[in-house]
Design a protein that fits this description.
alpha/beta; 3-stranded mixed sheet; 6 helices; flat; binds zinc ion
């Protein structure tokens, strides 16, 4: 039995969509893609009309219990269990409480993402002063005027190509602390397809498990 009220429903307008499309993004999270200008007030009616399909398909989603942390950036998947130990073929991450997940991700990012930043810095010849890992609410990363780059621990969930774009973007800010034409020209010199990557990264919050919170 699916209570539609319990579902996290995102509605996205798409220039390319010609009809309404419903997709299950993760357990309890649904994305409804509608053509531009579609009256969003009709979305609940459409979901109600598709309730039998949702009920058939929602419980089948993998990772409903327990939760998965898919750290695509470093090609690791962890099965997270809370409160009781389990034996599975994924490495086990056993934490006493859900509040421990973000601190765990921060430590993981310090150990494994910061070295990737150093590596990309060497490859591009763009140096930075200092890197720290934080848990920002709405940003993937930032760069200060002093060349201090701060990375969001949730970057761990991004596909490597998206992570690389974010790192190059911030490293280019050590040269141009703005989004001027010169800045984008520098980004393009390392990543000719930076526009596609930028678009992908704007949608990349969908890789973060919704129960971890985002925006
Ligand atoms: Zn920027």
């Amino acid at each position: 039995m699916v209570e539609l009220g319990d579902l996290d429903v995102q509605v996205r307008e798409s220039l390319r969509a010609r009809r309404v499309k419903i997709a299950i993004v993760s357990p309890g999270q649904i994305r409804v893609t509608v053509p531009m200008g579609f009256p969003t007030a009709e979305v609940p009616l459409i979901l109600a009309a598709n309730r039998p399909w949702l009920e058939r398909n929602l419980p089948k989603m993998p990772g409903a219990h327990p939760q998965m942390l898919a750290l695509a950036a470093i090609a690791e998947e962890w099965r997270l269990t809370l409160g009781f130990p389990r034996q599975e073929h994924y490495p086990e991450l056993h934490l006493p409480h859900r509040d421990e997940v973000i601190p765990w991700l921060r430590r993981k990012a310090e150990v494994q993402l910061v070295p990737i930043l150093h590596q990309v810095s060497q490859e591009t010849g763009l140096s930075f002063q200092k890197a720290t890992v934080r848990h920002q609410k709405t940003r993937w990363a930032s760069c200060s005027g002093q060349g201090h780059i701060s990375l969001n621990c949730k970057l761990l969930f991004l596909p490597p190509a998206d992570l690389r774009y974010v790192l190059i973007h911030e490293l280019c800010h050590t040269v141009h602390l703005n989004h001027s034409a010169n800045f984008w020209a520098l980004v393009a010199s390392f990543l000719p397809d930076y526009r596609d990557r930028d678009r992908a990264v704007r949608q990349a919050w969908q890789y973060v498990p919704p129960w971890l919170g985002w925006r």
